[in-house]
Amino acid sequence: MTQEPRSAFNVKILLEIITVLIVMVGIKSIADYFGINGAGSIGIWCGIIVATIFMKRPKEKWRKYGLTLPKGKREWAINIGLALLAVISVFLVMGLILDPILSHYGLEKPTDVADRFQFFLGKPVYFILYLVTVVWIGAALGEELLMRGFLLNRLSDFFGKSKIGWVVSLIVHSVFFGMLHSYQGLAGIITTAFIALIFGAMYLISKKRLIPVILAHMIINTISLTAFYLTGGVVN
Predict the structure, then answer these.
(1) Of 40, 87, 118, 33, whose CA–CA distance to 212 is shortest?
(2) Tens digits of residue pLDDT in 70-96
(3) What is the pLDDT of residues 167-216, one digit of tens each?
(4) Residue 104 CB contacts under 8 Å (≥ 6 apart), including other chains
(5) Where are the domains of the chain?
């Protein structure tokens, strides 16, 4: 059985990455055009469907990329501890480094970024539904599956499995993640890119466990969205 030439393999991987990203961004743009809430989550899950189709050719499963539930109390404790470490790291980097630097250079998120959340203010049922479907399932689970699970690993296939290859993959995937949040302006792009760096590093440090970064993503988004809801949109 002959192995696939490296150049052909790289072209195949690159086409998979580009196809998934085009589908994700394209579907999101269409959903945004029609004013559908959770457009980003819809785009993400369409990207996941396409990624899953690509994964079937080499008979890969999401388990390979770390989508497995911990077994027993000890494993759950380890995963939760890693998630909390990621959350603390994000808040420290944001509060002590990024926010001061961005403020110094006058970089702020556009004032209309939070407008998309206005519809559930004062409506607890809408808030909970949005939190569960869009924030937890769409963003926390979906983005971690696609960004840290599929994209980061596919990039490492392209750049190589060496330490340098993983570092380059980590940086490139963070830039992609930041650009997906371009609606938040330059400040939002920089912020989310650094969050992707932290989540990606935690994913690799934890030996490719997705549960810690999924939980961390869920915790951070839940805190920020709950603060927005409880303050009537003052905190965003």
Answers:
(1) 87
(2) 999 999 999 999 999 999 999 999 999
(3) 999 999 999 999 999 989 999 999 999 999 999 999 999 999 999 999 99
(4) none
(5) 77-231
Task: Round to whole Å and give the CA distance between 132 and 137.
Answer: 6
Radius of gyration, alpha carbons of the chain: 18
pTM of the full predicted structure? 0.94
What are φ and ψ of residue 112, in 5° steps?
Answer: -90, 5
Give the C-alpha separation, 196 to 98, whole Å: 14
Sequence-ordered list of residues with C-beta below 8 angstroms from that of 139, at least 6 positions apart, any chain:
40, 41, 44, 217, 221
Residue-wise burial string across 161-185, b where 16 or more C-beta atoms lie within 10 A, e elsewhere: eeeeebebbbbbbbebbbebbeebb
**How far apart are the C-alpha atoms of 236 and 230, rounded to whole Å?**
11
Name the token pair of 71: 């077994």
Residue whose tokens read 């769409």: 138
